[in-house]
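for the writeup, i need someone to sanity check this before i put it in the appendix. the sequnce is what the collaborator sent (i think, or maybe the updated version? ugh). structure was predicted straight from it, no edits. if anything looks off just tell me and ill rerun, i have time this weekend
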Amino acid sequence: MGASPGDNRPMEKHPASEGSPAPANPRQPFVTGSLVIATLCNPREKFWGMILALAPEGLSLSGAELASFEDLAVMVRDGEPFTPAVVFFPMHRIERVELDSPDGSLPSLSQRFFAKTGLEPAAALALSNGDREPVDRDLHDCGRHASKERA
């Protein structure tokens, strides 16, 4: 059964929507700028951050290891300079990626970060060379340095 020419009408453009960003598509939640928690395997670790790119080859994030999250929040709260780790995880290491969203009465990591630092996580994790001061260490290695010092 064929469709009549009147069944497939073009959508009209609404002037109010022109120039404004498109609303988030619930069918594509993992877009550039989304805050996520990535669970990785071999070795098993978790990483909190903002998606820079998601491709069949892997996932690029700007953020920190989940184990270093509290240290990161304290550094930012205390006004210490920091640079988020910019990492690429090949797809074979990615076990799971979930949106950083609240779970019932438990706040998301982003909400916790904002409550502790007063800084929006997206602003803190955004790449901006001109707005950041030089940094002494990489947040991704923050937990490793502490464990080496304990040894």
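Confidence is low (pLDDT under 50) at residues 13-23, 129-151. Residues 29-150 form a domain with the SH3 type barrels. fold (CATH 2.30.30.100).
thx in advance!!
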